[in-house]
Write a structure and sequence with these properties.
The complex is a heterodimer of chains A (275) and B (287). Chain A contains twelve helices and no strands. Chain A has 275 residues and is mainly α. In chain A, helix 1 packs across helix 11 and helix 7 runs antiparallel to helix 8. The termini of chain A are far apart. Chain B is mainly α. The longest helix of chain B has 36 residues. The radius of gyration of chain B is 23 Å and the shape is globular. Classes of the chains: A mainly alpha (275), B mainly alpha (287). At the A-B interface, helix 1, helix 3, helix 4, helix 5 and helix 6 of A face helix 1, helix 3, helix 4, helix 5 and helix 6 of B.
Chain lengths: 275, 287
């Protein structure tokens, strides 16, 4: 009896870990292989059959990509756009999140619902008419225009995420600070902010990922001042395979770093998409 | 004085956001409708929609957008459910596996398409592996216009791979709010893991499943970069055609018509899910 129970236990464990490892390999394989392709020499693209181990490690492909006209500029644009988006969406969104977390007021439900709905509108329907409007406003083909659109995309998420963060900061502490002579703003800056900071940092990184990955609007709204995804997408049809592999790898790396940084907040951040 | 200030404060805190969202979401959507339905002289017209419907790629774009949806969304939900249930058993090392499964969260559809391109291309890694194992004598053409089902399959794989992570996180968040008692009660009554999953966990998970389905369906209508990366324009999709009409054909009117169509499908799908899943949830008595 005892041995059959433990045998069943061992069997279940093997099944569990087997499935977990298999799914992990499924997730990691494409990342490993595109990295392998990006760090092979350019001629290796046409090699047959391809080795599955990094036997011919080379930075040739990556150097070619980085030195291609427009690429480093687009990386710079992507970073600047993402930083502008973070600053704008936190400055605009965090106060809104605080309001939703702390106050009861008429129209609160309607506003939350409106924000929820605004996340659902397809990018295409916003980007196309904005491109037309931006041409008239001299915002077309500028990083400012792209950052504006990315901020609009990120804002509903930022409000909902920051509201969750502020709910987590005990109201008692804020009220205690106010009885001890702080006004509302001081209480917010000295008591609430320090406690909310880690969550806000995670929200900032989340916003970075939204902006860094966005391709449709960025491609529609720019012509020469491309972001990295826009640059790669618009040259997809007339670029060699190794250029695309390097571009793909280049886009993936920051994402990997950031997901590692905010791993504790994964469920809260992406889970909040669904609320 | 104080009370008055307080009553105005939440509105003034929300004002910048509401102004911004109105200017950059509401106004553009109204303008997109004008673009799509207005002629050059400002009068109402269906010319853009006629042009869209008469385009050779239109029927295919419609067909492939829905086919992708039908294949990708269930695959994502099943894979994500397995991942979420595995993680939720909290086996030793589960956080490590959670981070790995979550990696595609931060990867764009364009980058995902390119990563799978390195696998499916003629002299790519999949053909190399199959050749070295002796299954193939020469490369199989996954990405040829002469083999549309295979090409379609590569898109399904790549997009499922990427967006499974989003569904997993939503489902896992949903699993975590189910009280442990339910699991324990099922165990006490001797339910097997399979029975417990089917009859206890899945019904309780319905709100999260509904959210995941709505979100993935909405985004499935917008799929385009992963398709471009793997299939170019051989497999057209609605969002991709919208992009092409704007960027290549320089015709914002038809591009906006496509965008309006995507929006209409989005609204219908959302309504459908709320209606179908809400009623059945209420009937089952879980609401």
């Amino acid at each position: 009896m005892r041995s059959s129970v433990s045998r069943r236990y061992v069997f279940n464990r093997v099944l569990l870990y087997g499935a977990a490892i298999l799914l992990a390999l499924w997730t990691l394989a494409p990342l490993y292989l595109v990295a392998l392709a990006a760090f092979s020499a350019r001629q290796a693209t046409f090699q047959w059959p391809k080795p599955l181990l990094p036997t011919d490690f080379s930075t040739d492909t990556m150097e070619f990509f980085a030195n291609t006209r427009g690429v480093m500029g687009s990386v710079g644009n992507s970073v600047v756009v993402a930083l502008l988006t973070i600053v704008a969406s936190l400055l605009l969104g965090a106060p809104g999140g605080y309001a939703l977390a702390r106050f009861r007021f008429r129209g609160k439900e309607a506003i939350s619902m409106g924000l929820l709905i605004s996340k659902m509108f397809p990018t295409a329907i916003r980007a196309i008419s904005l491109a037309v409007a931006f041409i008239q406003m001299d915002l077309y083909d500028t990083i400012w225009g792209v950052a504006l659109v990315h901020t609009a995309m990120a804002l509903p998420f930022v409000i909902i995420v920051t509201a969750g963060i502020f709910v987590g900061v005990p109201r008692d502490l804020e009220e205690a600070a106010q009885t001890l002579g702080c006004n509302r703003l001081q209480a917010f800056l000295r008591v609430v902010m320090p406690l909310a900071l880690p969550g806000l940092a995670a929200a900032a990184i989340f916003t970075f990922v939204i902006s860094w990955n966005e391709v449709f609007a960025a491609t529609i709204l720019t012509l020469r001042n491309r972001t990295l995804p826009a640059q790669v997408l618009s040259s997809l049809n007339d670029s060699p395979l190794y250029y695309r592999y390097a571009g793909g790898f280049f886009m993936i790396v920051p994402a990997l770093i950031f997901i590692f940084l905010i791993r504790r907040y994964l469920l809260n951040l992406w889970g909040s998409i669904s609320r | 004085m104080r009370a008055k200030l307080d009553s105005a404060l939440p509105y003034s805190l929300l004002l910048p956001t509401l102004a911004f969202v109105t200017l950059l979401i509401v106004v553009p959507i109204v303008q997109a409708f004008l673009l799509a339905f207005q002629g050059a002289d400002g009068s109402f017209t269906l010319a853009n929609f006629q042009k869209m419907a008469n385009d050779t790629a239109f029927a295919d774009a419609l067909k492939f957008t829905f086919l992708l949806l039908i294949f990708i969304v269930p695959m994502q939900v099943v894979l994500a459910l397995v991942m979420a249930l595995l993680i939720h058993t909290r086996f030793k090392g589960h956080t490590f596996f959670l981070y790995i499964y979550a990696i595609p969260l931060a990867i764009s559809d364009l980058a995902a398409g390119i990563a799978w391109l390195s696998i499916f291309t003629e002299r790519g890694y999949l053909n190399s592996i199959l050749f070295q194992l002796g299954f193939l004598e020469r490369p199989f053409l996954f990405l040829s216009y002469q083999n549309l089902p295979a090409m379609f399959g590569t898109i399904v794989v790549a997009e499922s791979w990427r967006a499974t992570a989003i569904v997993m996180v939503i489902l896992l968040a949903g699993l975590q709010v189910i009280p442990r008692d339910y699991f324990e009660a099922a165990d006490v009554f001797g339910a097997t893991t399979l029975k417990r999953t089917l009859f206890v966990v899945l019904p309780l998970l319905r709100p999260s499943l509904q959210n995941a389905l709505i979100i993935r369906t909405i985004f499935a209508f917008q799929t385009f970069a992963v398709v471009f990366a793997l299939a170019g324009r051989v497999i057209p999709v609605l969002a991709g055609e919208s992009y092409n009409w704007y960027a290549t054909n320089r015709n914002p009117g038809v591009a906006a018509a496509y965008a309006v169509l995507v929006l209409v499908f989005t609204v219908i799908a959302t309504w459908f899910y709320f209606r179908v899943l809400k009623t059945s949830a209420a009937e089952a008595g879980y609401d």
